Amino acid sequence: MNFKNIFKNTSNMTTENTEIDQELEEATLENNANEEQTIVEELSVEEQLTQDLAKEKDKYLRLFAEFENYKRRTTKERIELFKTANQEVLLAMLPVLDDFDRAITEISKSEDELLLKGVELIHEKLKNTLIAKGLEQFEVKAGDAFDADFAEAITQIPASSDEMKGKIVDVLEKGYKLGDKIIRFPKVVIGQ
């Protein structure tokens, strides 16, 4: 072979090697790009999972807080219901208690001590039973300033003095509370 042919073959080989090197380099770059894209996709999947987890955690916390508020509200309503459950029965018994008060007043005018003592015993027993169920007498007396939030004015009469104007002159019917709630307002007469 001659030198020219060898040189030609060598230069062809060099050209072929260069082309192969370029193809290898392109394949390597493409492979690196694919790997980077896969890493980016994996990060995206990881980020997506992290975001989904955060959303679910937020949803769970909101649901839990809502449930706790529901439990607190229903417990409070149940306690209020138990406190005022016997309100209707107590309201029905108040006229009986008023009748006992009137009866004691009238019997005390008579001379019969045994009758008075018997009625007072029954009155005290009824009163103590109602108190045990949560009933309290709402104290309003003559001479107190009239407050429409805590008493019901039945009528107005001329005041005996200037200092009795706008004040309670007489209490016609006692008022009662059940816990903190007034179930019957006292009925009063006020001075004008």
From TrEMBL:
Q: Which residues form the signal peptide?
A: none
What keywords are annotated for this sequence in UniProt? Chaperone, Coiled coil, Cytoplasm, Stress response
The protein's location, in the record's own words, is:
Cytoplasm
Which Pfam families does its entry note? GrpE
Give the record's GO biological process terms: protein folding
Q: Report the GO terms under cellular component.
A: cytoplasm
PANTHER family assigned? GRPE PROTEIN, GRPE PROTEIN HOMOLOG, MITOCHONDRIAL
The protein, known as:
Protein GrpE
Gene encoding the protein = grpE
